[in-house]
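Structure request: cyclic-guanylate-specific phosphodiesterase, Pseudomonas laurentiana.
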Amino acid sequence: MPLSPKRRSRSTARVLLPCWWVSFQVICGVLLLNWQAQRELQAKARFNAEHAIEQFDRVLDNIAQAARNLLPLAGQPCEQVKLPLREQVTRGTFVRSTNLFYDDTLYCSSLFGSYREAVNPDDYTDGSLWLMDGNSVSPGHPLLVYRLSEGSKGAITTVDGDHLTHLLRLIDPDSDLRVQVGQHWMGTDGRVRNDPLPGFAVAPTALKSSHFSFTVHSGYPDGEVWRLMQRQYGPLFGLLVFLGVIAGAACNWQLKRANSPRAELQRALEADEFVPYFQPVVRHGDYRWAGVEVLMRWIHPRDGLVRPDLFIPYAEHSGQILPMTRRLMQQVAEQLAPHADTFDEGFHIGINVSAAHCQDLALFDDCQRLLAAFPPGRIRLTLELTERTLITPTETTFNLFAKLHELGVMIALDDFGTGQSSLTYLRQFKVDYLKIDKSFVGMIGVDALSLHILDSIIELSNKLDMGIVAEGVETQTQRDYLAQRQVDFQQGYLFGKPLPLDGFIDALARQKKEATVAQPSCP
Ligand code: C2E
Ligand code: CA
Ligand code: CA
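Returned structure:
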């Protein structure tokens, strides 16, 4: 059923699609934020490494200057140069000690004065820098040593590792910075190691100093991207979820609208999926086809041919029955008018109308247009009003019915016997025909009480001078019973089922031929 509100697959889709949409938006948003966080950490890691190099270069510049100042004194007796050595310690901001060596032997120190110790140039990276994990004065305490030589003369200056550790910690407390000199490296814990340098899980960055032989490594531990997202993007993430939910709700609303019976009917109306089927109505006596009842069908693209009782109630409820009937009447005119010459004079065309039509004067124009499509007098238009829903008598209704009668349009009360219309009601609306409901016709030869009602209806119509049509005639017994009671018109599968235009026109032609053969014209 195209309009059933209980379609499981549709309601599941209505729930799943918005959920999927919300999740999709949130996942995309999270991925975007994750990518943004990675970029931010990458930029920060690089900035930290550059900043660390700048600071270390400044410190090393300071102790290198002290070494340059002392180099000319190398080779002179320690007693003579002791004072300048100490003076450099005092002057240099970062200088912890100064030393002079000659022929790879350290012979004078700012700390001990005259002193002897071998100097091995291979201990120094590029012969100039050595990151030590302590010396004889402060074992286990980090120390960065700078060596400057010229021939056999040379000066050595040192900086306390604490300066370096402080710098590493100050630059970015969240990041992990390491300084590497040759095989030795030191992190923010201030310990010098010479095992392989461990890599960083997030944003690993390594930058070399262009002035001195050291490298700074920077980066972040595993999970730092999510920690940054939590720290910085919390409100943004909240906004993202909020917008996602709004988008999901909008999607749900759209789906509801698109899947509502109203939208589905509107779509079908625009796609011209409602088409007329034609069922013959035969007259009393010779059973010639005296007319036709137009019955609406929905050619649904997925569900195929849909019976009207499955969608007409929705259309009546939503008010869409008005444009649907208007379009149906246009199609009837377009399809039947070209065959008008095959119709007997006064051929009946019955159109079903709903209660809502009776409050709308536009029905008059629709009828006028339909009649205008045929040669004058060729057809008789009958509007079939069901007795199941009684029409509220208003000024508009009376006005409309009066105008319709003036136009020659007749009114038939459909499904007669199933509602509670009174005699007053029949007179008020000047009903021309009563259509006996098929449930009574079906009882012919079966149920005595229903048969009694059927007889009463026929009698009543005679008394009120109304025409009578019996619908749902399926057997010859029913046909003969109704014929005996002079019922004006009969309709039912016995004479013909509702057919699309081509089938109906062919059947009409066949029926006319058979009738002509049965009644040869007099010479
Ligand atoms: P209805 O106006 O009483 O139409 C007669 C119904 O009885 C039709 O069903 C027809 O196919 C069926 N019928 C005719 N002869 C026989 C028979 O010998 N045996 C049986 N068992 N059924 C027979 P259908 O076409 O399914 O239409 C059902 C109802 O939908 C109609 O009842 C009418 O109330 C409504 N309908 C159909 N087309 C329209 C329309 O264009 N506008 C409005 N407002 N209602 C319509
Ligand atoms: Ca009808
Ligand atoms: Ca009926």
